[in-house]
Amino acid sequence: MAADVAVVVEHLNGTIAEVSFEMLGQGKRLAAALGGKLRAIVLGRDARAAAEACGTADAVLYVEHEALGGFDPEAHGKALAALCAESAPAVVLVGNSSKGMDLAPDLAVALGVPVVTNVGAVAIEGGTIVATSRLYGGKIHAEVQVAGGRAVLSVLAGAFPAEAGKSDRPAAVEGVAPPADLASRIAFQRLIEPEAADVDITKEDVLVSVGRGIQDKDNLEIVQELADALGCPLSASRPLVDLGWMPKSRQVGKSGVTVKPKLYIAIGISGAPEHVQGMKDAATIVAINSDPKAPIFDVAHYGVAADLFDVVPALTEKVRELKG
Amino acid sequence: MNGNEPSPGETLMNIVVPLQQTPDLVEELEINADGTDIDRDAVTLQLSEWDGQALEEALLLKEAGAGSVTAVTIDGGEADAILFTALAKGVDRAVKLKPSGDAPTGLDHHALARLLAAAVAQLGADLVLTGVQSVEDLDGQLPVLLAAMLGWPHVSVVTGTELRGGAIAVKQEYSGGVMAELEARLPAVIGIQAARQAPRYAPVSKVRQIQKTAKLEEMPVEAPSGEAGLKIRRVFKPEIAGRAEILEGEPAEIAAKLVSLLKDRGLAI
Q1: Which of B39, B150, B161, B258 best tests the A interface by mutation, with the highest count of A CBs <10 A?
Q2: Could you tell me if residue A99 is inside a domain?
Q3: Which CATH number goes with the domain that contains A314?
Q4: Which residues are registered as beta bridge partners of A234?
């Protein structure tokens, strides 16, 4: 049993999160390397439907209970810990999402096994689990080996291909009774859908996106002028939204939206994994950042390693000239 | 969510806000000699940005009549500056934790959580607000590890809180702008992503004035031994895959090159 791999499948309103398929694909490879089986774990009020979509796994265990309807970190934590204590997988893969952030460290403490966070790569070397964590906004990585042969890995979205985790094969689903104790000090109350925004940035062909490099709210005018010249809206990375400089509806990345425009111009954005996750599939990516080592240049097609305050106004002028 | 005045006779909360000092990413980070950590002698430390958000949310709760706010951080680095700034912003108590041995490094959140769990118990906290993550999350995010060690409930990625008697109502953020509303019974640990408003600014003059009049408390804590179960093989700067074609020249030349590239590809122009 201690050679098996488990993937915690995340789903909302009947849709399985892409990171879950990414983990199923990677989990399959890890299970093969360990000589074990891949199990998917699905928790919820109606977990079976989501379980049916996990044909990549050798077995899909689903637990249904009223208390698992909305995401209550304590009830979900208890159900997951009970299941993992029983089946004792060597590796448990959890997405480093909002829910996963509540689940992974908690599960590791409950099972008494190590946890590695922000995992972007994982391998089995002679039976030892070796994971690479992307730290400091992706600027530094740490390769760690896990003591004791078991671990919970909190996996970054976009680190592995989702296709490898998708399968038309009928899933071998198996209902598992919830543990007797799902008592929780947390009550899930309701989902809040986002308010309709003035602009839906997921539907735009071109986006000018701005990050912390802009330094000051007043400087936004510089990038707004470029966006106006190009006739596209402005989007932003998380810090600018948290500072209240840009509306939430314009946020690209992990807790914002995923965009796939034809052209994405990233200005003053360093390219932390949380942001890259939301824009890496844009058809053409241009990055303007003063730090030539910024991770954004890894996903960009064209890069300008210069001061945005010099380059952006020059670019705006050229665009205006051409568009008349 | 609106602020909530506690009803008469209700005990006021003791809100504890652990503050982490993390490297300023604007500066280039270097790797230490044996390649197992960043060079901690060469970094500029600053308050972790998510902890700054947690501090703001705690102050908003206090202003709504919730009770008192205690900021804690481990001694060393920028501890004094961070705590005096917290006092200038309005916390009631500022406590420097003095470990009996070596303080945990930034990459050992298990040890940090163990140390903070002891401090939180000693301070008699009803509620802990702290940053949902830091740039050094190698072995788990701090709030969840801390909650697990305390045996308290936890909610991560929270962007707004409101006290309701012996419970805290929170908004937990998912992707795509979807949120959930949850209520957690106290005591609890809440991992803050963003406060309801941008963190307030403490003027330098006010911080200086506080520095002259206020005294930071000190609390001895036991230095925990490692329990993360991870062996760091190497810490390294990832190879830039070099996917981007870098455009060089004066700003006007770069702009001209970019515009012609976009035009050739039928993009936007």
Answers
A1: B258
A2: yes
A3: 3.40.50.1220
A4: A208
CATH 3.40.50.300 fits B13-221, yes or no: no
- pLDDT tens readout for residues A236-247: 999 999 888 999
Q: Look at residues A134, A159, A175 and tell me which one is the last residue of a structural domain.
A: A175
Phi then psi for residue B153, to 5 deg, are -70, 160
Whether residue A268 sits in one domain with residue A305: yes
Give the percent of chain B with pLDDT over 70. Answer: 95
Task: Specify the residue for token string 């998380």.
Answer: A238
Q: Which residues 177-196 in chain B show a CB within 8 A of chain A?
A: 177-185, 188, 191, 193-194
Place B10 in a pLDDT band, splitting at 50, 70 and 90: low
Average model confidence (pLDDT) for chain A? 94
* CB-CB neighbors (< 8 A) of B171 in chain A: 192
Domain ranges of chain B: 13-221
pLDDT band of B234, cuts 50, 70, 90: very high
- Which residue's structure tokens are 């500022």? B94
Task: Give the pLDDT mean for A204-229.
Answer: 96
Dihedrals phi, psi of B141, to nearest 5 degrees: -75, 140
| Mean predicted confidence (pLDDT) in A146-175 | 95
Interchain contact, B29 vs A140, CB within 8 Å: yes
- The ipTM of this complex is 0.91
Domain that holds residue A311: 201-323
> In this structure, is residue A192 part of a structural domain?
no
What is the distance in angstroms between the Cα of A46 and the nearest Cα belonging to chain B? 18
Total domains, chain A: 2
Domain assignment present for residue A257? The answer is yes
- On whether both A79 and A165 belong to a single domain, the answer is yes
Answer whether residue A190 is part of any domain. no
CB distance from B243 to chain A under 8 Å?
yes
A231 and A285 in a single domain? The answer is yes
pLDDT digit string, tens, across residues A255-311: 889 999 999 999 999 999 889 999 999 999 999 999 988 999 999 999 999 999 999
A249 to chain B: which residues are within 8 Å by CB? 177
Burial environment of residue A313 by CB neighbours within 10 A (0 to 12, 13 to 18, 19 or more): middle
Q: What is the pLDDT of residue A243?
A: 86
Lowest mean pLDDT among A38-47, A93-102, B168-177: B168-177
Taking the Cβ of residue B147 and every Cβ of chain A, the question of whether any pair is shorter than 8 Å is answered with: yes
Half-sphere exposure of A296 (CA within 13 A, CB side): 32
Q: What is the DSSP string of B150-171?
A: HT--EEEEEEEEEEETTEEEEE
Residue identified by tokens 């309807």 is A69
| Residues A246 and A168 reside in one and the same domain | no
Q: Residue A94 in contact with residue A100, Cβ under 8 Å?
A: yes
CATH of the domain at A39: 3.40.50.620
Instruction: Name which of B263, B240, B259, B255 is nearest A300 in CA terms.
Output: B240
